[in-house]
Design brief:
Glutathione S-transferase Yfyf (Class Pi), Chain A, domain 2; alpha+beta; binds glutathione
């Protein structure tokens, strides 16, 4: 039995929902509402001491940190791999995941934005400007990297989704939420469109979640 602690609009929960679906695994979704600070309350903090979603309960084990959970999924369920075989191709795929997971998502996380609002008195226009700054610079680089990749196919690498797409698509969703015009990045848009033909990506979308509102 797998329980997924998730919030519909969380990019890290979104990437884990895609990863679980691509591995063909069903999880019981337990929503944790970030809007009502449910993640900072004792019940969830006893599950994830950082107070961050997602978390995965597998039998009596609690797994935290989406990159580490996705690596565990890859190792525990090696069929339908997230990484290509070639070592340099694996490095390329991981580098795209890292641009999103290490360089774009963390600086636009809710707790960072709340600190900008509360401590530095940023207004909503400034918050959007902040988010756009990191998403635009990250996506500009990604578009160049995708453009230069000779093995790019329908997806970031080849013709099957990889770890790179698992990270990229939630970040595209978040860019749209921050009102960023995606027309600047035709390759990223095409990959997003392609991913959204697959049920694993369609069903993982924020709007499809039972806690979406
Ligand atoms: N590195 C963590 C980051 C998790 C994370 O930042 N989760 C966000 C939602 S996408 C969260 O719970 N934020 C709560 C907050 O910022 O207050 C992971 O990948 O699991």
């Amino acid at each position: 039995m797998i329980d997924l602690y998730t919030f519909f609009r969380s990019g890290t929960s979104h990437r884990l929902r895609i990863a679980l679906a691509l591995k063909g695994l069903d999880a019981n979704h337990i929503p944790v509402d970030l809007r009502t600070e449910e993640h900072s309350k004792a019940a969830f903090m006893s599950i994830q001491p950082q107070g961050l979603v997602p978390a995965l309960r597998v039998d009596e084990h609690v797994l935290i940190q989406s990159p580490a959970i996705i690596e565990w999924l890859e190792e525990a369920y090696p069929s339908r791999p997230f990484l290509p075989k070639d070592l340099l191709a694996r490095q390329y795929v991981r580098s795209i995941a890292a641009i999103v997971g290490c360089d774009i998502h963390p600086v636009n996380n809710r707790r960072v934005l709340e600190h900008l609002r509360g401590h530095f008195k940023a207004d909503e226009d400034q918050i959007l400007e902040w988010c756009a700054k990191w998403i635009v610079s990250g996506f500009d680089a990604l578009e160049k990297i995708l453009n230069a990749e000779k093995n790019r196919g329908l997806y970031c690498y080849g013709n099957e989704p990889t770890l790179a797409d698992i990270y990229l698509i939630p970040q595209v969703e978040s860019a749209r939420r921050f009102k960023i015009d995606m027309n600047r990045w035709p390759l990223i848009q095409a990959i997003d469109k392609q991913c959204m033909t697959l049920s694993a990506f369609i069903n993982a979308a924020p709007s499809k979640q039972k806690d979406a509102s």
